[in-house]
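Limitations
The structure tokens in this dataset are predictions for the assembled complex, not deposited experimental models. Users should treat interface geometry with appropriate caution, especially where small molecules or nucleic acid strands are included. An illustrative entry is reproduced here so readers can see what is and is not provided.
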Amino acid sequence: MFGLKGDWSLEVKERYFTLQDYSGAEPRWCTGCGDHGILAAVHRVCRDSQIKPENTVAVSGIGCSSRLPHYMNTYGFHGLHGRALPVACGVKSRRPDLDVWVATGDGDCFSIGAAHWIHAMRYNMDITLLVFDTHPSGALLPPLNPLTVTLGVTNISFVAQIVDWNAPLRHEVITKAHQHKGTSFVRIIQRCPVYVESIGKALQDEPARMQLLTHENGVQVDDNVKRLFPNHAEHDPSNLAAALAIAADESALPLGILYHNPDAPRYDMMTSVGMEMGVDDKLAGMNQALDHFAI
Amino acid sequence: MKPVTENKQNASATPGTDGNAGKDIIDLLRRFHFGEPAATEHTAKPAGAMLPALLNPYRDASTIRYQYPLYLLPPDGAADDKLAKPVSEHFSDSLHEFAPEAEDARILKDNVAWLERFLRQKLDALDPVDANALFDDAAKALQKHLGLEQASQEQLDAHLERLKATIATGGQFLGYGPRVSLHLMVHAIRHRREHGREKFRQLVMRHIHGLQSLLDVEKAKSTGANEPGSVKSSVGPASRYFDTGALSGMLEQRTSGSVKMSAERRARVEHALKELQSWQDDAVAVRFVGQMQDPGFSKLPSIEVIDSDDPCTTAAEVFKRDAEGLARLFAAVRIAALEVDDSYDAAVHDSWFAGFDWQAFSNEEMQLQTPVVALVSANYLACDGLAPFSRLLGSRLPVHVFSWVAGFLCALDSNRASLHLINRGTQSKTKERLLDPWFVASAALESRAHPFILVNPDAGDHAAERVSFDGNPQAEKDWPVEKLEYRSADGELTEMDLVFTFADYALLMPALHGHFRMVPAGFESDDLVPVDQYLDLEEKLVNRQVPYIWGIDDQADEVGRIACAGICVS
Ligand SMILES: Cc1ncc(C[n+]2csc(CCOP(=O)(O)OP(=O)(O)O)c2C)c(N)n1
Ligand code: SF4
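Predicted assembly:
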């Protein structure tokens, strides 16, 4: 109506945050480390969505990747090895208003933190979980396929996989993961030129070993990105069985969004019930609940 | 946009979605529709903040990007389609051009809406302002608002500078206000003038030179032309290097022509030359004639306001007065051309130039005349002014008559009288504005209450070619149809097609709310029909059915039906 154009909303930002507003200390990762690009992507996604730095928390465990909270100008929690997710879940359960990011490594998440990983996936709290995976073949640490395991967890809601070196794909997937309301599991195949250079190199030299998954409800990248991945396929992320089959197929490393269910129940919705209640109300509520067991 | 909800709350409580009570309600509404005072008293008027349902999303104009403010391009001879551009469009096109990638000039892109809002707020003044100066203010204010760290600040400064570079020197920003139509007219006139003026200036200079040369040749034929003094002056400063007396002696022997210019021709040439030399470009771009309620307007440069109780008559006189002066000038131009070409034939041309007046002006000449615009009220046109207006039309004088009015480019091209009727988006009798005036004015166009009709007698031989409705939204339909998104009583997000008619527009005028009555929430009846369908009813059904529109007030967030009085739809 009124001949208004598509961009007719005059959305004015009363506070505006630049990339600088999300940048913390100078990163100390090695030169050529994939973590730099992932950090840049996180800054960009925060800037794009203009989340308030004071309403953002970055939580991590132990490892190179777990240094990420230091490099964010937000709240942060550099935790214990394998314990990033329990801390993040704790934050989210009491402060559902905060935007919670988790940075964890493959050892931190799939090995020492494996039990927390499984249960955090099941809780499906609104958390963006980035797993920086330097050992995608599972050669060194846990002999498991993180994608099939994650997809097999009850109540899973978002599973994606990317490589750190493709910026448009990285940005697209982390954006979608952040927009998703629930736990977004993003496994990032990360280059570590110091210890496992060959893993990143092999994939970069032979892009046909990866398969780009695109879909109107999943990843949409332009032709320039597609050209870098000669092997690509359409995959509907609402199809869990197809996602599992793709994840289990070891002939190619799938990239993109494997699974997305925006309707899975979220535990943070349940834990935040009654947050506004005073002590007396809570006591009364507990008494009432316990009275059910009165004999 | 938050979808509204369909009002069904009282559906079960409403006495009579069926049965006698239902019959009572429709009877009451029908009686109201036919103007029965008792029924009018027993039914509820819409609340003051009631808007047609389709306009609900536009209540807060500060969050909506629309065509204003405008960026007016300076009249530097640019083509007509470059007269003006919405500021938002100009910014977005420019950013697209110099920062095509999403990350280029990102801070500026993310905050261009802030800039636009700043400009809009500053442009609540009535007149256009210098675009570059205001942009500087906006840029400074944006930096202050954002409070960025040094590096980002410098980046933003550089990009603001690039955006500013897209604004031409002399460009202006114009906000939407009561004077907007006049300003746009003046702006369009200034553009038109600039096109022809420069060409004409050069033509006059050429003819002055041509006529002067003719007279110089004539002077050279006289004996006095070879006197040492004349020779000295004709040679110029270099004459001090030689003996002008000797030169004068030599010149005496050369032939200097024997046939003298006739006295009449000489007089004609001298007269034309004087006329051309005395011409001064009119600094006034347009003369407005009438009762200007708004004294500030007459103070603006390049505008002359001539006070008059009878604008049509005075405008015609002013036009003729100006035209007389121009007729002398244009005659001089034409005579100069003929004389320089030595093709002036007194037998043919004398009589023609004796009767030369504005009716003989060429199109280009006509465009050089300062436009005269009679400012009239609709009342004047309908009553006292009708006779002078008719006389003006009959006279074929190219005087514009402006009755708060749009779309005058074609009229400026035309050499006939033109009438512009302008809707200024005023909402009568409202303490607080329900809608921004631009939306009210646009709703007038959208609803066909004030349709765009262009009658251009020069557009063709047939009536159909001369009348155009093309400027109307969805011109191919009887009424524009728009989608209304709402949440039904059971919570489903639903869409319905709604027509937007003059009855919806009437609801925008609280003074006309007496012609509307609320239909009880949830009440349904086959005899309630939307206005557009009512207008298509067969004669025999008209007495039975009650037309309605959909409305919504600012509190309820619920759409409800509003019955219309007969006077609204007859
Ligand atoms: C309880 C405990 N066990 C072992 C360690 C030693 N440790 C430090 S980092 C690390 C491996 C981290 O690897 P990963 O999670 O893959 O992160 P990356 O360094 O690859 O980013 C280990 C085992 C520790 N810090 N705490
Ligand atoms: S050791 Fe590897 S993972 Fe750690 S910072 Fe260096 S390159 Fe990165």
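Some entries come with short summary sentences. For this one: The first strand of chain B starts at residue 4 and ends at 6.
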